[in-house]
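Tokens in:
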């Protein structure tokens, strides 16, 4: 056996290992989706699982073709909803009002904890002004 032949053998080995692992991931994701779907009753879930055990490749293809859109929708429902807030909305839902923040900063300035420049910066920040 020459060097090039052994390199191709290694390449094909890793390729088929990748295909096998990807196929297992698809099967596992289908099983998860079968149990996640509340519109299927128990008997239909059992039928899908039996076919998935005995004829896995064809059943996986049929499932992905027939119920692929529903899989995507159920997966999207499980994803957490991320909401981005603007500066105004964050200011509205923050714990302290701007006047309270300014009062706290003034008290710190009067105690000598912060300088007048730091007080002005905190005041601008509380009022939502840009630096």
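Residues out:
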């Amino acid at each position: 056996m020459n060097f090039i032949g052994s390199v191709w053998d290694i390449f094909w080995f890793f390729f088929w290992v990748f295909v096998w692992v990807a196929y297992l991931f698809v099967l596992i994701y289908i099983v998860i989706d079968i149990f996640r779907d509340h519109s299927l009753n128990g008997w239909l879930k059992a039928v899908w699982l039996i076919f998935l055990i005995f004829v896995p490749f064809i059943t996986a293809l049929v499932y992905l073709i027939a119920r692929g859109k529903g899989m995507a929708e159920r997966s999207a429902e499980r994803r957490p909803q991320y909401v981005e807030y603007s500066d105004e909305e964050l200011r509205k839902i923050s714990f302290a009002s701007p006047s309270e923040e300014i009062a706290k900063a003034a008290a710190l300035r009067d105690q000598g904890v912060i300088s007048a420049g730091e007080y002005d910066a905190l005041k601008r920040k509380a009022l939502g002004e840009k630096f």
